Amino acid sequence: MKVDLSTHNSTLTTLSRITLFICGLGLLVVLFAPIWRIDLMAPQYPEGLRLLIYANNLAGNVDIINGLNHYIGMKTLHADDFVEFKVLPYIIVFFSICFIAVAIAAKRKWMNILFVLFVAFGILAMVDFWRWEYSYGHDLNPDAAIKVPGMAYQPPLIGYKQLLNFGAWSVPDIGGWIFIAVGALLLSAVVYEWRRRKKIITQFGTTPLWFIGVLTLALTGCSTDPEPIRTGQDNCNFCKMTISDKRFGAEIVTQKGKIYKFDDAHCLNAFMDSNKVGKAEIAGVYFTDFIQPHELTNVEQAYFLQSPKLKSPMNGNIAAFSREDSLTKMLPQYPGFKITWEDVQK
Question: DSSP character for 292?
Fold first, then answer.
């Protein structure tokens, strides 16, 4: 009997159809869960402030944040001012119906079109979010009580950023992670069906679809790599002063990818002694190379020099080097002692 392979290859497998159906139902949950959140930390608010962004509303410490924004000239946040809150729920419902419809129709072509539309929506949403943050961070009232020349207050699109004495942390919330999971599962279904059509029998092709989705999420998770210290822009997370000499800079990176920056070994040690971040939460501690301050070296591979001649910003007077011979070459100019990371922490 002759089999029509073209028709067979254009039809989705049961596994892909179930995946799409679950994604469609998952998107409905986004209507009731916060999609994004912005956390603000400052000494006067040790418990932190939080802005929650839903599909159609704002929640959290909105009134307190609006009160603080008034002093620096930022516009107040009101859900009624955002057209996105009026259309976003309908867009979510639209995609939910599309996922379920494609699952029922079981057409691979329709799934590919849905994938392109969903990715385009995700990109457009992030661009719109950045535009909103830029507008609120730069369009300031010139008659504000607090004015810092050249200062803007745009929150980070994603990740961490220091804004005066506030540390701002912008990350997806429950609804946002559902969006990411739906995108990852849709991508895995597209790849799975494409490989099935090409009849490539590989380990990837026989991997369960749910595992591919989980693996995709894991690969897009929080990075624990350090980031460059920006002189004149980054503030020390302990003394709150702007980092002016990156030769003595240091960083702590947590297991969740949050980064704390310091202008001196003294500030880093004081921060660690405060137990604001537990030792079990720390993924790595880094110092800038005194010779090449654009490079960051893990303390486990670093060599340290302590000398009163170094005159670091907070008088820690400790410099780090990625190579021992580089430290040795600096001893005539900065006479002192070679010390270990354990000595630095004392």
Answer: S
Q: Which pair of structure tokens corresponds to residue 108?
A: 């691979």
Question: What is the rounded distance in angstroms from the CA atom of residue 325 to the CA atom of residue 283?
Answer: 27
Each residue's pLDDT tens digit, 287-313: 999 998 888 999 999 999 999 999 999
Residue with tokens 């410099």: 319
d(CA 176, CA 34): 7
**Percent of the residues in the chain that have a pLDDT greater than 90, as a whole number:** 47
- b/e for 152-162, b at 16 or more Cβ within 10 A? ebbbbeeebbb
DSSP label at residue 310: S
CA atoms within 13 A on the CB side of 322: 13
Q: For 221-233, give the DSSP string.
A: S---------TTT
Kindly tell me the burial class for residue 9, based on how many C-beta atoms sit within 10 Å of its own C-beta (0-12, 13-18, 19 or more). Answer: middle
342: left (phi over 0), alpha (psi -120 to 50) or beta: alpha
Angle at 204 between CA 203 and CA 205, to 5 degrees: 90
For the residues 168-187, what does the mean pLDDT come to?
92
- Measuring CA to CA, which residue among 119, 127, 51 is closest to residue 84? 127
Give the domain ranges of the chain.
5-219, 246-344
Contact 248, 313 (CB under 8 A): yes
Name every residue whose Cβ is closer than 8 Å to that of residue 101 and which is 6 or more positions away in sequence: 110
Contact predicate 145/49, CB 8 Å: no
- Specify the 3-state DSSP secondary structure of 180: helix
Residue 18's H or E segment, with its range, is: helix 14-29
Residue located via tokens 């916060």: 34
pLDDT at residue 202 tops 50: no
Start-to-end Cα distance in the chain: 81
Q: What is the pLDDT of residue 209?
A: 54
What span, in angstroms and rounded, lies between the C-alpha atoms of 254 and 91?
36
Task: Report the share of the chain in percent with pLDDT over 70.
Answer: 89
Q: How many whole angstroms separate alpha carbon 305 and alpha carbon 338?
A: 5
